[in-house]
Amino acid sequence: MRARKFRFLAVFLLCLAPLLAEDNLKYGQPACSGPVLDKSYFVVCYDPGHKIPTWVGYALTKDDASATAADRNKGNYDFKPDPALKGSPRAENADYAKSGYDKGHMAPANDFKRSVEALKATFVLTNSVPQRHGVNGGKWAEVEAAVHSLAIKSGTVWVFSGPVFAGASPMKTIGRDKVAVPTHTYKVVLCVHPDGKKEMFGFVLPNIEKPSGSVSDYTQSLRFVETLVGLDFFSSLPQ
């Protein structure tokens, strides 16, 4: 009887996963040539050739953004290889060691403090790209904070983040697994206000140690980012 209950629970949880993915991708799923990994709290389009995500998407409500159930400074929150890719091409922690690059969150830890499980879920290498520390802890962190504040003040946000490979220079890689180093990272945001009004915008930041200027200097239109990376982010909305 106990085994039957366990099987029922397992099937029930598996049935929930698509619903969670649909919520995070409510306004459309961008194209994905690799596997789509539903992490419950966010969704990853994984690029096995580059060993990083093509995009990571999630929804953030006011309640979730305001929650403080988990503390990143308390507990074991270390990046780990994605267990869903065991036996497949993937990044390992050793690839980042002494590389000069941070493991830059695409779905940021600060947006998932609603529970220990949610916070821990963000510390998987399929949710990261190699970023210079100066941008990861600087302008990129400022962008993340601005989006977080927007969810608290203005309404639910839907977010996609990922890498950009621009220019003619050969692509850089790190580690034995040749994890690709993007030239830039992007973030696009759809904010749905309580009255139903929608606004969309994006950011593109260079993957360098000290980006100049202010965050506003890196603001771009959604169409600009879509053209840059060749993706349609909120396809269920009218043009």
Question: What can you tell me about this protein's structure?
Answer:
This protein has one domain (34-229): Extracellular Endonuclease, subunit A (Extracellular Endonuclease, Chain A, 3-Layer(aba) Sandwich), CATH 3.40.570. The chain is globular. It has 239 residues and is of the alpha+beta class. Mean pLDDT is 91; it is low at 1-19. A hairpin with a 4-residue loop joins strand 2 (43-47) and strand 3. Helices cover 27% and strands 25% of the residues. The protein has helices at 2-24, 62-66, 93-96, 116-121, 133-136, 139-153, 222-229, and strands spanning 36-38, 43-47, 52-60, 102-105, 128-131, 156-164, 172-174, 179-181, 184-192, 198-206, 219-220. The longest helix is centred in the N-terminal third of the chain and has 23 residues, at 2-24.
